[in-house]
Write a structure and sequence with these properties.
The protein is α+β, with helices and mostly antiparallel strands. It is 16% helix and 39% strand.
Length: 194
């Protein structure tokens, strides 16, 4: 009887894992968001026309390369240290009850639909699921055309999008602060580890 080579045994053991990864869309690799060079912010308007600029000092995420060559973004932003720049009172309101309610809902999360890599170079629409206060909705963000060949590594990936905060139960202070929240992201990543 002919013996089975060790290389064939390894191949037979690895094939089911690869098949599961392809079937489930699990990432082949991921590039982590570079917190030192990434900026995530938002703007709100008051009923008096004042523009409030907010920022997320704490976040993490990655851009995953899927087995089929497409990519997916996963991003989490902490609500407990959201800051409305230059306005400590608005900062407390934004973190508190009826707004992001950071004590109960410590993060906002976004997971994109898989997309083709040229989107980051050419620009276009990126759809995904945004979760705020445990309410998930499909949202679309606009990706600006890149100023380099390797967006995210050699230049920022610039994205923006507007959402209605009331869609997520963030409905306090409607008389004073508009319903529309405009997110702005300037993302950089570290080189993916294979």
């Amino acid at each position: 009887m002919k013996s089975i080579s060790p290389a064939l045994i390894r191949t037979l053991l690895v094939l089911p894992v690869v098949a599961i990864a392809v079937a489930t869309g699990r990432p082949a690799s991921a590039a982590e968001i570079d917190a030192q060079h990434t900026r995530i912010g938002f703007t709100l308007k008051t009923r008096w026309g004042q523009v409030l600029r907010g920022r997320f000092p704490r976040y993490d995420g990655r851009i995953e390369t899927l087995e089929d060559g497409r990519a997916r973004v996963r991003l989490r932003m902490g609500t407990g240290d959201i800051e409305i720049v230059g306005h400590p009172n608005y900062t407390e309101i934004t973190r508190g009850d009826g707004f992001f309610e950071a004590d109960r809902f410590p993060e906002i999360a976004f997971v994109s639909e898989p997309y083709d890599r040229p989107l980051l170079v050419d620009g276009g629409k990126l759809r995904g699921e945004l979760r705020i206060r445990d309410v998930s909705r499909s949202e679309t963000f606009a990706i600006e055309p890149a100023g380099c060949v390797r967006p995210g590594l050699d230049c920022d990936v610039v994205a923006s999008g507007s959402v209605r905060r009331s869609d997520y139960g963030v409905d306090r202070w409607m008389f004073a602060v508009s319903d529309i929240v405009r997110f702005q992201l300037r993302l950089r990543v570290r080189e993916a580890a294979e």
